[in-house]
Amino acid sequence: MSALMEKTELGESKSLTGRTYEELRSDILRGRIAPDKKLRLKDLQERFSTSLSVVREALARLSSEGLVRALDQRGFVTASLTLADLKDLLQTRRQIESIAIKQAIELGTPQWEADVSAAYAALATLDQKHGEKNYLSEDWIRAHEAFHQRLIEGCQSKTLTAICTGLSERIQRYRYLSVSLAPHRDAPGEHKEILQAVLARDVALAQAVLDKHYARTEQILTDAWSSVESQNNSRDD
């Protein structure tokens, strides 16, 4: 086999692994695959029309991110969701993003300000069109994630940004499975407060309103997830 053919096959394998990984990751984060769900290699092989080695490599990547866990000689299962884990994720996010937003305001460029403003405008447009009915739509979720992502990208630290993104994505799993139990909140108003503080380059105010925003999220999600766990325990009794 020529070097060119070997390189081509390697590239195709990486592409297949990447596609399998991305689709499975999206399904897990969006709640389309339930927690503690056994992932059968043969089923995934058929779904993605690929090899078992590609499926295993994709699952290994997901395992390294804490989204699935390997069972000794028995394949893989999606990671559990627990109230204790949710609280840990939320509290850690509040601490880490306080650092990130401070650094972003201190180091952020005019282009960063423009990117944050554009992301906010896109999110606000969806809020005005659909209100709370929008909170599980793919468009709103992407716009919401983009706004929070733009906020922290000004910190100019790939490591810090990656940590914040990872925490946000893991929290998203809980949001999908409990949003129907969440009470009303003025999320558009909260996002506007954050934007105004950031554009004013007021570090203390930005940290305060962002923390208040996440504290509200923490209260809503922990209350909702407590209800989910209570319902699950009642069914088990």
From TrEMBL:
It comes from Emcibacter nanhaiensis. Keywords: DNA-binding, Transcription, Transcription regulation. PANTHER family: HTH-TYPE TRANSCRIPTIONAL REPRESSOR GLAR (PTHR43537:SF20), TRANSCRIPTIONAL REGULATOR, GNTR FAMILY (PTHR43537). Residues 14-81 form the HTH gntR-type domain. PROSITE patterns: HTH_GNTR (PS50949). It comes from the Bacteria. One of its GO terms (molecular function) is DNA binding. This is GntR family transcriptional regulator.
